[in-house]
């Protein structure tokens, strides 16, 4: 079979056999693909730093008949996360992006909107200011994967929430008004809801001029992570690590 | 029913647990042990037992050792005020091969890896901080791997170690000696350019 060529974002690698790596990468052409990079562990010549998570590459790979895993032939680096300082908050945020893509994207299903979203968020995720890009990515990814409920009305009574208080719960599929909220619900501020509405109307770069504190839109991020975790039916490792970051 | 006698099957099963050893290799190794002399087989068994019984972590640097402190920490000829921080004990051998580093070490036993759920609290950092706080160190060389995880670890440590009078340095990155610039990947070349030095 001929070599395929596609822009791709490396999501994760796992050691395989003595010297190989099992690589999960998100291609523009075919969506999430899993493949084997032969001798990638032993020799760094062919892949160099191209297999680091969240590296934007041009990938060359080959499908083999009757085999589930593709053969990753080579990668040319287009953009590497190592080009900028990797602070601890940035490393966790990059890991969060990679984990979300790895968990939410189905295999071999092209999704250009998510690919473009990832590239634009990675471009703004170059410094230690991670909270805005993380919020933007979680919000849009939840929407693009079809898991985002309507944020402007109560899921129980259907009343509009504009201006009034809104609550969410780990086991509920959306926001609730004060009358219908469940026990142990958390509140989502109207600031966070209007921020979400703004984020749906503007590109990520337009928010990058201001530095966000961790507290800003933390209720929105909690709601989004709870929504995603309920759909993938597991806890996100990096979400817990983001929670522990102090600022 | 097993094709081999029970002790042989047990040995094959145990050998199969080793990394990179499949059924065929395990069988080959098991038969090699069977054919070897009693003394050789016992020496192998003793070596395996001793590794578990006698080795521990150095209380100063976390290196794997049979004496505490380890040979690097107790050496009077090495500069104990210069500490090289590495991810794994095996990294020490790579640095020792140069025969040009005469300082001490500190082993973290891993690196920060958000995707694997490994944060700074999982690394062995506390005794390094104690060493620095006691004023026993002039320079820390951060020799973690040039990967996203290794970089995150180095940047995190540099923040934790920042103290007046303490120099914190990072090993250089760039083109491997003997290779060709033509074949260097973009990020390696970028790092090499960033780390250039005046002649």
Task: Write a structural description.
In chain A, helix 1 runs parallel beside helix 3 and helix 3 crosses helix 5. Chain A is elongated. Chain A has 2 domains: 80 residues, OB fold (Dihydrolipoamide Acetyltransferase, E2P), CATH 2.40.50.140; 156 residues, Up-down Bundle (de novo design (two linked rop proteins)), CATH 1.20.1440.120. The termini of chain A are far apart. The longest helix of chain A is centred in the middle third of the chain and has 17 residues. Chain A is of the alpha+beta class and 247 residues long. Helices cover 32% and strands 21% of the residues of chain A. Chain B is an alpha/beta fold. In chain B, the strands form 2 sheets. In chain B, strands 4-3-5-6 form a 4-stranded parallel sheet. Chain B has a two-stranded antiparallel ribbon with strand order 1-2. In chain B, helix 5 links the parallel strand 3 and strand 4. In chain B, helix 1 packs across helix 2. Chain B is globular. At the A-B interface, helix 1 and helix 6 of A face helix 7 and helix 8 of B.
